[in-house]
Amino acid sequence: MTILVTGGAGYIGSHTCVELLNNGYEIAVLDNLSNSSEEVLTRIREMTNKSFMFYKGDLLDKDFIKMVFQKNRIEAVIHFAGLKAVGESVQHPHLYYQNNIMGTLHLLEVMDQYEIRKIVFSSSATVYASSQPMPLSENSITKAINPYGRTKLMIEEMLADYYQANPKWSCVVLRYFNPIGAHQSGEIGEDPNGIPNNLMPYLTQVAIGKLNELKVFGNDYPTPDGTCIRDYIHVVDLAKGHIKALNKVQIESGYYTYNLGTGGGYSVLEVIQAFEKATGKKVPYSIGGRRQGDVPICYADTSTSKMELLWQATKSLEEMCKDAWNWQTQNPNGYKIIDHATLNSNN
Ligand code: NAD
Ligand code: WQD
């Protein structure tokens, strides 16, 4: 039996594929490579010494999804595929509603048709309403403030409705906090297109000299050092959470929601300090204005995932920084392979 991983070539998907393969699961990866590279699949195969099928194609193409279900004995789906840039979603809401909502609807329709009703879905802490008491539990108030967040909330509600309509469905929604870091081998990691939006990839690109300095978005927040606090979680801890979620959908039907975070938070300045300590690299930074949409503090209550999924994050902020830096230094151009022979012949 095979676990279908949509978006398995992406940042979190690739780390989860490694955990799945190392735990003896057979997998198939479906990805349109719109935000990833085929090189990651080669690396996963090398790291795990395991083989698996890769289907390059789009969730917007229902016949393509059917073909993948026809060719494999799929038992459950881990659904990562989606667009995730908040700013882009504000500029191009149609793209987000089409890709994330339509893509998921197609997937669910084909799953239903093939009577495969076990799904683990990538949601986000971004679904929680701002200005509420911390830590955020799964029962905290939800209210998304941008199209990206709304697609996540809508998909959560869709899954709840599917379960309501047919109790054979087993859906685990995982709300990730701030995933950072990379596999400790340095073989796979986060490879954003263009200038990164998120703190850690921006910081590592400053540290390696690709970007000049990090701009800290505001130091006048109601936090001890004035900079925003987030619940950063090592991507490998997050990936392991998916194995637990998969165990859950394999043994019982239902609709469940879990936070995947560490349960604590660090400020932007604390992240910079931890990075400098873990790597010995200085990070040039300056204080800038606030970024629109940022909340001062956000961290998870992880007691339900501990109790029900038997999962908890174990890696420290220093490890997250060390592994992010290891990935950055081993792969200064991410997965892009620079062909020096061609470069030289063009010069
Ligand atoms: P990612 O962009 O690295 O991975 C997503 C993958 O999905 C990419 O490989 C992309 O090519 C693929 N994809 C996108 N649309 C597709 C489509 N229509 N058909 C087939 N493939 C498609 O992102 P990630 O950081 O690995 O995030 C994975 C999931 O987790 C996403 O759903 C994201 O919204 C969610 N999430 C991410 C974070 C984060 O900070 N990285 C936080 C919370 C939730
Ligand atoms: C972290 C902190 C910034 C960059 C985002 C999405 C969220 C989820 C996770 C998908 C904040 C500060 C950042 C920089 C900075 N993704 N910062 N300078 O905003 O908490 O969450 O990723 O679901 O939906 O919104 O993460 O890494 O962008 O920012 O000072 O150049 O770092 O202000 O306090 P965020 P982030």
UniProtKB/TrEMBL annotation:
It is an enzyme of class 5 (isomerase). It catalyses: UDP-alpha-D-glucose = UDP-alpha-D-galactose. The keyword Protein biosynthesis does not apply. Its cofactor is NAD(+). Signal peptide: none annotated. GO terms for molecular function: UDP-glucose 4-epimerase activity. Pfam families: Epimerase. Its EC number is 5.1.3.2. Transmembrane segments: none annotated. Pathway: Carbohydrate metabolism; galactose metabolism. InterPro entries: Epimerase_deHydtase, NAD(P)-bd_dom_sf, UDP_G4E. Keywords: Carbohydrate metabolism, Galactose metabolism, Isomerase, NAD. Gene3D superfamilies: NAD(P)-binding Rossmann-like Domain (3.40.50.720), UDP-galactose 4-epimerase, domain 1 (3.90.25.10). Residues 3-261 form the NAD-dependent epimerase/dehydratase domain. The keyword Isomerase applies. Belongs to the NAD(P)-dependent epimerase/dehydratase family. Homodimer. This is UDP-glucose 4-epimerase. It comes from Bacillus kandeliae.
